[in-house]
Amino acid sequence: MAIAGSQKLPPRRRKVRILATLGPASSSAEMIRALFIAGADAFRLNMSHGDHATHAANVATIRALEKELGRPTTILADLQGPKIRVGSFAAPPVQLEKGAAFRLDMDAQPGDATRVEVPQHAVLASLEIGQRLLLDDGKLVLRVTATGETHVDTEVIVGGPLSDRKGLNLPDTIVPLAALTEKDRRDLAFALEQHADWIALSFVQRPEDVAEARALIKGRAGVLVKLEKPQALDRLEEILELADACMVARGDLGVELPPEAVPPAQKRIVAMARTMGKPVVVATQMLESMIVAPTPTRAEVSDVANAVYDGADAVMLSAETAAGAWPVEAVTIMDRIAQNVESDPGYRARIQFTETKADPTTADAMAEASGNITQIVGADAIICFTASGSTARRVSRERPGVPMLVLTPKLDAARRMGLLWGAHAVQTRDIGSFEEMIAKGRRMALRHGFGSAGSKLIMLAGVPFGTPGSTNVLHVANLTGKELNDHKD
Q: Taking the alpha carbons of 298, 303, 304, 305 in that order, is the dihedral positive or negative?
């Protein structure tokens, strides 16, 4: 499908991206379109819920919208991962009393107030005396008192009601489970068949988890790691080295870490991802109250604003758009929050607080220089010619003060830009010479609203043209306004 050259909507001036989750409240064509118009730059398919037919219908709707509006649109397929759950009970819910004994075993019989099944032997075998177990998103806390071949005995530290299939978190141990379950492998194959742009990996613990997924994906989609296990933070740099992007998944991370430890972890992840030039998404409970209310709390507004001030590439809505009563309003308010933060005179200084030191390469040097030159000469935009998207990622890492127009001949590269800070991607025919680069850069800047007569543009490309990762040309061009009469793409 070619969507080159169309421009039916003006580019978003907001630089941080908005990722909206689709679900029962937002799976109609009308609602998906409304979310996009309201400000959603990318759409998340949660493979933990819904069937393949529903997800395929949403993909078809997004691609039709992409064609209608002439803008590459991003799809992220979020795999469920090895979520650990307890079994069922004979008469749920059961009440676990503080100080009582409670056994986890491999017996498939319905449980009661004294025991319940945990079907994975590897989970039970990994536990040691004294370790904590968290049930139902941390509402109940157990401590291991004894271990056996097919069971562990625990003491209830924090009691409460427990129902069927509630989640079990093990914050004190690395669980030797495969990063991809059989369900994940089926969902991954489906997502790749549907040409999803990003694959999100859940419950990543080790670099090996990322390597396994990369071997299956084979470059057909970007690999985003969800950081929701404390163990992943111990090897954060190694994990990010293998990933294409990451997500601060504060839901499960906030279960396994003390609540007060989550904000520093978020700051650390965002800073390291930015330093390494990997897009970073901040997610979970950002506007949680808007699941039922038409307006957010002041604390939620501050939470979103802080992620934008930290320089996150994207902020995500989960149940707010998937199952909430006010999905369009949630996107609208998130868009307004981000725009107001980015218009704050102090915003530039805040997002430059994270040091993004350039690697000793020509491409990194050019990207860093582009941001400095825009300030010195008063340029209105940076134009990136890229085949793989690497030039755009390098420039975005610097968080330049002007918009970035990304021109690429590859639709898949353009689509992946939906999670990249400040990038407005356009699919267009490739260039073959320096003169063609200048002419096309001027023409496309005018056509897409990135300059007017008298504007200066910074252009970045690689010679030989069309060679991925070869950024070695930086040119400052002036616009006369006459270029718009040339209709070549």
A: positive
Strands 17-22 and 456-462: unpaired
Q: Give the closest residue to 224 by CA, choosing from 293, 273, 264.
A: 273
Q: Which pLDDT value is given to residue 173? A: 87
Q: What are the Cα distances from residue 473, in Å, to 63, 138, 425?
A: 34, 53, 20
Architecture of domain 17-82+178-351: Alpha-Beta Barrel (3.20)
Tokens of 167: 């989640």
| Tokens 């010479």, located at residue | 433
| Residue 256 structure tokens | 């396994």
Which part of the chain has CATH 2.40.33.10?
94-169
The highest-level CATH class for domain 94-169 is: mainly beta
What pTM, to 2 d.p., does this model score? 0.91
- Looking at the annotation, which residues are catalytic? 44, 85, 226, 284
Query: Whose structure tokens read 């890229």?
Result: 386
Strand 280-283 relative to strand 198-201: parallel, antiparallel, unpaired? unpaired
Residues of the chain with CATH 3.40.1380.20: 362-485
- SS3 of 429-479: the string is CCCCCHHHHHHHHHHHHHHCCCCCCCCEEEEEEECCCCCCCCEEEEEEEEC
* pLDDT tens digit sequence for 66-104: 999 989 999 999 999 988 999 999 999 999 999 999 999
pLDDT above 90 (res 260)? yes
CATH class of 362-485: alpha beta
Q: What is the pLDDT of residues 42-66, one digit of tens each?
A: 999 999 999 999 999 999 999 999 9
